[in-house]
Amino acid sequence: MPALVALAPTLRPDPDPARDWVREELAKPEYQPTLMERALRWLNELLDKLVGGVRDVGLVNPVLALVLLGVLLGLAVLLLSRLRRDPSRPERTAAVLTEERISAAEHRALASRALAEERWDDVVVEAMRALAVGLVERDLIDDQPGATAREVADAGARLFGAHAERLHRAADAFDGVLYGDHRADRVAATALLDLEADLRRARPSEEPSDGPVLAVPR
Q1: How confident is the model at residue 20 (pLDDT cuts 50, 70, 90)?
Q2: Cβ contacts of residue 180 below 8 Å, gap of 6+?
Q3: Do 79 and 166 share a domain, yes or no?
Q4: What pLDDT, on the 0 to 100 scale, is given for residue 188?
Q5: Cα distance between residue 26 and residue 148, in whole Å
Q6: CB under 8 Å to 147, separation ≥6 — which residues?
Q7: DSSP 3-state helix, strand, coil percentages of the chain (rounded to 5)?
Q8: 187 and 125 fall within a common domain
Q9: How far is Cα 80 from Cα 3, in angstroms, rounded to an integer?
Q10: pTM higher than 0.90 for the full model?
């Protein structure tokens, strides 16, 4: 006698509950578009607007999407740099003496390596730090972490008057590189290296009467 199998009645939900079930199911993470898919879709819509409102052309090529993303990021960086150079904002200068300290000789070695690799920005930064740390090591200026390049230049100018102009140019180059407003070149890099070497060999024109001096960092 054949076995009898009880069949469950067919589930026939009402339209409203059925729609709710579908929404709940589609809301699960596995049905959600990935971040890349959402970004590509957004970039595709932007591209459509840029080329005249073309619609229903599918997602853009990922390579083109990355190019567009790069353009948008570039515009964002440009905008931020313009805001940073807003003349209504206070002028800033970068710290040359930091909490994490290495010797002047080590900074010079880093600058020399950067010079060999034609990384001019790094040459400027490391040479200026070698100069500042060298003055600290000679007890010519106070060891004040957070002291700026401009303050070091001002203090150095009082000790080495013949190099005052070069010191201030070096501080400007250092600030420009660190804030991204300027890119150094070979001339600026070698000029700062030469200045550091000249000061290392030079004797101060006058000894500070009350010991090492340095303007209070701002």
Answers
A1: low
A2: 81, 84
A3: no
A4: 94
A5: 57
A6: 95, 96, 97, 132, 141, 214, 215, 217
A7: 60, 0, 40
A8: yes
A9: 78
A10: no
